[in-house]
Design brief:
It contains three helices and six strands. The chain is α+β, with helices and mostly antiparallel strands and 211 residues long. The chain folds into two domains: 85 residues; 106 residues, no CATH class. The longest helix has 49 residues. The N and C termini lie far apart (170 Å). Keywords: Membrane, Transmembrane, Transmembrane helix.
Length: 211
C-alpha cells in the first residue's frame, strides 16, 4: 500500500501542537503554584510580625507581668502596715483588759483598783429592789459581788460596812476584808438590770476605818 505522506505530516503537526499546549499548561500550573506558595508564605510568616508590631499578645503579656510586679510591690508595702495596725490593735485590746492599779491621794486609800473584765454576778431576783437588810437575797448578792471583786469567797469574807451610793437603789459601797487578813477594801458596785450587781471599782484602804 503506498504511504500517504500528507496524512503523516498532519499527525506529526497535531502531536507537536499537543506537546506545545501541554508545555504551556504545565508552565501556567507551575506559575500558579509558585504564586500560591508565595502568597501563603507571606500571610503565614508576615502575619506574626504584623501582630507583634500592632501591640498584641506578646506586649500584653509583658504589660500583665509589669502590672503583677507592681501589685506585688504595693502589697508588700501595705501588708507590714496592716500587720502593724493589727498588732497595735491587739496590744490596745490586751491593755484595755488589764487590771489597773493607781496610787491615790485620797485619805486612808493606798491604791485604786479597776478591772475591765469584771462582769455582773447574776441574780435570782425577778424584780430588783435594793435591800440593806441582812439575810435578804439582794443583801447576799451585794456581798457576793464584793467578794468577787477582791477574789475570795463570800463565806470567807468579813463585811464591815454596807451602804448605798449616790443612787442607793442601783449603787452600793461595801467595806470588806478576807477573814484573818489585815487588808481591807472599799468595794463600789452597781446594779445591771437583769444581770445583777457588778463591781466597778475597789479601793485598798491603809487601815480598816470600820472595825
Amino acid at each position: 500500500m503506498p504511504i500517504d505522506f500528507k496524512d503523516e505530516k498532519s499527525r506529526s503537526a497535531r502531536r507537536a501542537k499537543r506537546r506545545k499546549t501541554n508545555i504551556i499548561l504545565n508552565t501556567l500550573i507551575a506559575i500558579v503554584l509558585v504564586l500560591i506558595l508565595l502568597v501563603g508564605g507571606s500571610i503565614f510568616f508576615g502575619g506574626g510580625s504584623e501582630t507583634e508590631q500592632a501591640g498584641s499578645p506578646p506586649d500584653n503579656h509583658e504589660s500583665d507581668s509589669e502590672q503583677t510586679e507592681q501589685t506585688q510591690e504595693a502589697t508588700a508595702e501595705v501588708e507590714p502596715n496592716e500587720e502593724q495596725g493589727n498588732e497595735e490593735s491587739t496590744e490596745e485590746d490586751e491593755k484595755s483588759d488589764e487590771i489597773r492599779e493607781m496610787d491615790s491621794d485620797e485619805p486612808n486609800v493606798e491604791k485604786v483598783i479597776v478591772n475591765p473584765s469584771w462582769k455582773p454576778i447574776g441574780t435570782e431576783q425577778n424584780g430588783h429592789q435594793s435591800s440593806y437588810n441582812m439575810g435578804t437575797t439582794d443583801w447576799n448578792e451585794k456581798l457576793q459581788a464584793a467578794a468577787y471583786a477582791i477574789g475570795i469567797s463570800a463565806d470567807n469574807m468579813n463585811d464591815w460596812w454596807v451602804t448605798g451610793g449616790e443612787d442607793p437603789e442601783n449603787q452600793a459601797v461595801l467595806t470588806v476584808s478576807e477573814k484573818g487578813s489585815d487588808d481591807t477594801y472599799r468595794v463600789y458596785i452597781e446594779w445591771i438590770s437583769g444581770e445583777g450587781w457588778k463591781p466597778v471599782e475597789v479601793k485598798k484602804l491603809i487601815e480598816n476605818d470600820k472595825r
